[in-house]
UniProtKB/TrEMBL annotation:
Keywords: Metal-binding, Zinc, Zinc-finger. Gene3D superfamilies: Zinc finger, CCHC-type. InterPro entries: Znf_CCHC, Znf_CCHC_sf. Residues 48-94 are annotated as: Disordered. Pfam families: zf-CCHC. Residues 101-116 form the CCHC-type domain. Transmembrane segments: none annotated. The keyword Metal-binding applies. One of its GO terms (molecular function) is nucleic acid binding. It comes from the Eukaryota. Residues 48-69 have a biased composition (Basic and acidic residues). SMART domains: ZnF_C2HC (SM00343). This is Retrotransposon protein.
Length: 128
């Protein structure tokens, strides 16, 4: 009986070893029941994980659809690599060495002095 018990998959053997079993027939029946329960639990877990993956794909499709509806090119879900010039994560051209406002892209002032930024109620004292 022990030879059969130790030949079982570890998860089934663990479930069976927690029970008091008197004969070989009971051992086989308990092992079969444990295997069925474990397989059912695994299927449920896999289905739940698949639902999460599918929902994540759906959310990503909504993001791509939303960004393309604003006239922007659809972007991948990856974060842009750090800019080699300034080290920040941004897409497009880096404005650090251009001497232009980060908000309106016009020369002569920075964002904290930007008339467009201030007219929209931009934060006082910001420099970027």
């Amino acid at each position: 009986m022990n030879k059969y018990r130790y030949g079982l998959r570890w998860d089934i053997a663990h479930a069976v070893s927690l029970q008091n079993i008197a004969n070989f027939g009971d051992l086989i029946q308990k092992a079969y029941s444990a295997e069925a329960i474990i397989n059912f639990a695994n299927k449920e877990r896999n289905a739940a994980n698949q639902q999460k993956k599918d929902f994540g794909k759906y959310k990503q499709q909504l993001k791509v659809k939303d960004s393309s509806s604003k006239g922007k090119q659809a972007q991948s879900s990856q974060i842009p690599r750090p800019c080699p010039n300034c080290g920040k994560h941004h897409s497009g051209e880096c404005m650090k060495d251009k001497g232009v406002c980060y908000y309106c892209k016009q020369p002569g002032h920075m964002r904290n002095e930007c008339p467009k930024w201030k007219s929209l109620g931009g934060a006082e004292g910001t420099t970027m």
